[in-house]
Amino acid sequence: MMPRFNPPEKTVADAADLLPELLAKLPDLKGRRLTAALSGGVDSVVLLHLLARARDELGAELAAVHVHHGLNPRADDWAAWCERYCADLDIPFQAAFVRVDPRGQGIEAAARRERYAVFSRLDTDFVALGHHRDDQIETFWLAALRGGGVRALSAMPTERLLAGGGQQTVRLLRPLLPFSRNRIEAYARSRGLDWLDDDSNRNPALLRNWLRHHLLPQLSARLPHAERHILAAITQLQQERALLAEIEDADWQALHPQGVFDCRRWQALSPARRRSQLLRFTREHALGSPNPRSLAAFESSLKNHAGAHLQWPLPHGHACADRGRLFAVPDDFAGRFPWHNKENHFSGSLKAAAEALGLRWRRAAWGLSDETLNRPGSIRSLKSGDTLRLAVGSKDIAKLLQEARVPAFVRPYWPLALDENGEVAAAANLRAGANGCANGWLPEAGSLKGYLWQPESQKQPENPNAPNTV
C-alpha cells in the first residue's frame, strides 16, 4: 500500500497531537544531523512524521535509515515502502542490508546487534528510535524473566551514547517513550497515515510477543495500576543506575592511569566493583557479554594471579592479562593493522608508505634521517628472525619487544620500517637502527602506544652506541 501523507498545518492542536510533548523531550538539535530509524511500523512512521513536521523548528538536518534484515519474504517490499514514504516527506533515505546470524544468541538478539551496528556507522549525530511506553514495560519484563540486574531492569534510557561508534559520537534518542502504543496509533489514524504490519509480531513463540498479547493484558485486567507502578519502578532503577554509573566511571578512570587497564589497582576494589569493571571492559571493547560463571571464574583467577598471563574467552574475542595489564583482543584484531595485510603495497618514499598505512612520524633522540624517509622504502609486520642492526652487532626485534614488555599476542603485528634495500631501519614506537641520526624521525602507530610498558620517551636511546638498551 502506498503511504499517504498530507502535510499538516503547524497550528494543529488536538487531543491526538503528540508534537508539543515530543518537542519538550528533545535535546537541542540545531545544526546537528538527526537520522530516524524507519522500520515501517506504526511507531517509526509516526516518529518520522512528527520530526518532519518539526524540522524547521528543530533546525536539524533530518534523514532516515531502514535496516533490511532479510528475515521476511516481504523485506524487499518493506524497504521500497519506506523509501516511498520518505520521498513523500521529502526526507533523504537510505537502506542498510545486513546478514543476521542467530547462532548462540537467538534471532531477535542477532537482528538487534546488526541493527545497532548499522546505527553506529551512520554519518550522523543522533539516531532517533520509535520505542514507546509499551516497549519499555515489555523490556522490563523480559529482563526480569531472564534474571537481569539493575542495568537490564532499568530498561531503555531516553538518550544514551551508542557504543562502537568509531571515531564519531552517535547518540540514541527515544522521544516516543512517554507515549503508549494506543496514543501513537490514534495519532496515525488522525493524520490518515498508513504503516506496515509485520506478522512476526503476532508469533507467540517469541517471548516478547507472548508478553504483549497474553501476560501483560491479563496482568492489567487483574491489576489496573500495574503499568503505572512498573514505570515508576523503572524510573527509580534508572536513578539508581545513574548513581552506580558514577562510581563505575570513577573506578574506570582510576584503573587507567596511562590509558591501559591496571590489574593491580583493580585487585584493590571490592568484589562487586571488580566484577563491574570487568563487565565494563567487555562493553568498552565490544567483546560481548560473558555468562555469570565465566565472569566469576576469570575474576577469581585475575584476583589471585594479576601478574600472570591469563586469557578470558568471550563471545567476540578474548581478554588477555599480561604482566599486570588487561588487553582486549577482538575477533577482528588482525584487521586493525593495515600494514599486516600483504595486499597493501605502496610505491614511493618510505615516508609516504608509512603515512598511507596510518603511521605518523615524530621526532626522536635517535631516528631516521630526512634523506632515508624520502628514499624508497616499505612498511610490514614483524617476521620471525627480523633483526635491527645496531652500532655494535644486531638484535632480534622480537627480543626488543619482549624487553619493552609488549604482550606476545601483539608482537606479530608490530610495524617495521624497511629501507630501499629491504633492511629493517626502525621498529615503530620503539627505536631506529645504527643507520639513523640524532634528532631524526621515528614511525609511530597510535594504536600501539598502550602496549608499551612505559612512555615511549623513556625507551628512546639517547646514545646510539648503547645497543642493548630500549
Automatic annotation (TrEMBL):
<protein>
    <recommendedName>
        <fullName>tRNA(Ile)-lysidine synthase</fullName>
        <ecNumber>6.3.4.19</ecNumber>
    </recommendedName>
</protein>
<dbReference type="InterPro" id="IPR012094">
    <property type="entry name" value="tRNA_Ile_lys_synt"/>
</dbReference>
<dbReference type="InterPro" id="IPR011063">
    <property type="entry name" value="TilS/TtcA_N"/>
</dbReference>
<dbReference type="InterPro" id="IPR012796">
    <property type="entry name" value="Lysidine-tRNA-synth_C"/>
</dbReference>
<feature type="domain" description="Lysidine-tRNA(Ile) synthetase C-terminal">
    <location>
        <begin position="377"/>
        <end position="444"/>
    </location>
</feature>
<keyword id="KW-0963">Cytoplasm</keyword>
<keyword id="KW-0819">tRNA processing</keyword>
<keyword id="KW-0547">Nucleotide-binding</keyword>
<dbReference type="Pfam" id="PF09179">
    <property type="entry name" value="TilS"/>
</dbReference>
<comment type="function">
    <text>Ligates lysine onto the cytidine present at position 34 of the AUA codon-specific tRNA(Ile) that contains the anticodon CAU, in an ATP-dependent manner. Cytidine is converted to lysidine, thus changing the amino acid specificity of the tRNA from methionine to isoleucine.</text>
</comment>
<keyword id="KW-0436">Ligase</keyword>
<dbReference type="Pfam" id="PF01171">
    <property type="entry name" value="ATP_bind_3"/>
</dbReference>
<dbReference type="InterPro" id="IPR012795">
    <property type="entry name" value="tRNA_Ile_lys_synt_N"/>
</dbReference>
<dbReference type="InterPro" id="IPR014729">
    <property type="entry name" value="Rossmann-like_a/b/a_fold"/>
</dbReference>
<feature type="binding site">
    <location>
        <begin position="39"/>
        <end position="44"/>
    </location>
    <ligand>
        <name>ATP</name>
    </ligand>
</feature>
<dbReference type="InterPro" id="IPR015262">
    <property type="entry name" value="tRNA_Ile_lys_synt_subst-bd"/>
</dbReference>
<keyword id="KW-0067">ATP-binding</keyword>
<comment type="similarity">
    <text>Belongs to the tRNA(Ile)-lysidine synthase family.</text>
</comment>
<dbReference type="Pfam" id="PF11734">
    <property type="entry name" value="TilS_C"/>
</dbReference>
<dbReference type="GO" id="GO:0032267">
    <property type="term" value="F:tRNA(Ile)-lysidine synthase activity"/>
</dbReference>
